[in-house]
């Protein structure tokens, strides 16, 4: 069985241009973010992982590759203390590379280069008929344990769920956590996969980032779920950077601004320095999301991804 490297990023470089801050804003081109230093996203400090896909059968598929993606997402509306949590684990076998495979499944994360902005539609990885068929593998029991950095003691078993019928394009099983479960910022997460004939036992461990906090827009600290951007010709965002663990070298912050009328989303990626100036949203109403992303490239074919963010509605 062929194993293909899991890419750390899915950025696109073509069409990027440098502009002056006062130049007119064109949402169809990739734009630089003001005063942001570039940062290389490093693979997981403090990360423990072992296990490889089981190839004991010796059977060869047509240049198939096996990937694992465990995604833990925590979102809050404004400064609400009640977050929404989503944990999904996918173990797939495909003829395509990881980016195209997960794009076809709707779980790809397109990202511009650090210090740049781009329309989200331009960052979407493409997939075609050569991507399928995609097989989501039954890997046996999948457990997630969480706790402090020394002892992950709270254990939850992920529920196996059948992928909705997509014909011959994709089929199989993915794993998800109950909606009532929490994702604790700064906690240690251990993911243990029991294994099956298609995928061997796997153990991966990583530290979750802190949720973005003390967020201010153009100098005004957000105290609710909505912000006023009247007469804003620029959007300067500040937040408290996460320096609580050694894992912060992996972190980036990305900002999504969405227009409620056109439904267009602009994504800007920056280093977690606590400040960024991004192009203001074009519409009269919409949404701004401030994400902190931590990606552990546990093995060349396995990724543990944390995406913690706060969302705000805006009006002019």
Features:
316 residues; mainly beta; twelve-stranded mixed beta sheet; five-stranded antiparallel beta sheet; 2 helices; 41% strand; disordered N terminus
Structural commentary:
The chain is mainly β. The protein has one domain (31-315). Helices cover 3% and strands 41% of the residues. The chain has helices at 98-104, 120-123; strands at residues 31-32, 48-50, 65-77, 84-94, 116-119, 134-136, 142-147, 154-157, 159-162, 170-176, 188-193, 202-207, 216-217, 220-221, 226-228, 235-238, 251-259, 265-271, 275-278, 285-299, 302-315. Strands 1, 3, 4, 5, 6, 9, 10, 15, 17, 18, 20 and 21 form a twelve-stranded mixed sheet that branches. Strands 2-12-11-7-8 form a five-stranded antiparallel sheet, with no helix packed on it. A hairpin with a 2-residue loop joins β13 and β14 (220-221). It is globular. The termini are far apart.
């Amino acid at each position: 069985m062929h194993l293909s490297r899991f890419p750390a990023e899915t950025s696109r470089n073509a069409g990027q241009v440098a502009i002056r801050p006062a130049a007119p804003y064109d949402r169809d081109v990739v734009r630089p973010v003001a005063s942001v230093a570039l940062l290389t996203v490093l693979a997981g400090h403090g990360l423990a992982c072992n296990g490889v896909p089981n190839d004991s059968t010796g059977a060869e598929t047509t240049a198939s590759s096996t990937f694992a993606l465990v995604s833990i997402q925590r979102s809050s509306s404004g400064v609400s203390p009640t977050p929404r949590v989503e944990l999904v684990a996918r173990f797939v076998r495909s003829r395509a590379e990881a980016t195209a495979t997960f794009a076809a499944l709707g779980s790809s994360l397109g990202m511009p280069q650090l210090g740049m902005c781009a329309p989200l539609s331009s960052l979407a990885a493409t997939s075609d008929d050569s991507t399928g068929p995609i097989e989501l593998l039954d890997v046996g029991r999948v457990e997630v344990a969480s706790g402090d950095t020394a002892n992950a003691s709270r254990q939850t078993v992920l529920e196996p769920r059948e992928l909705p019928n997509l014909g011959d394009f994709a089929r199989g099983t993915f794993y998800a956590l109950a909606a009532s479960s929490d994702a604790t910022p700064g906690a240690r997460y251990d993911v243990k996969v029991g294994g099956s004939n298609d995928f061997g036992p796997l153990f991966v461990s990583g530290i979750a980032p802190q949720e973005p906090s003390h967020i201010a827009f153009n100098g005004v600290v957000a105290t609710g779920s909505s912000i006023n951007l009247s007469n804003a010709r620029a959007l300067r965002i500040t937040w408290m950077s996460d320096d609580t663990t050694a894992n912060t070298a992996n972190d980036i912050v990305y900002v999504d601004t969405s227009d409620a009328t056109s439904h267009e989303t602009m994504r800007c990626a920056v280093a977690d320095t606590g400040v960024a100036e991004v192009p203001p949203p074009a519409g009269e109403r919409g949404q701004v999301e401030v994400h902190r992303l931590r990606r552990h490239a546990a093995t060349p074919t396995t990724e543990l991804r944390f995406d913690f963010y706060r969302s705000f509605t805006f009006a002019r």
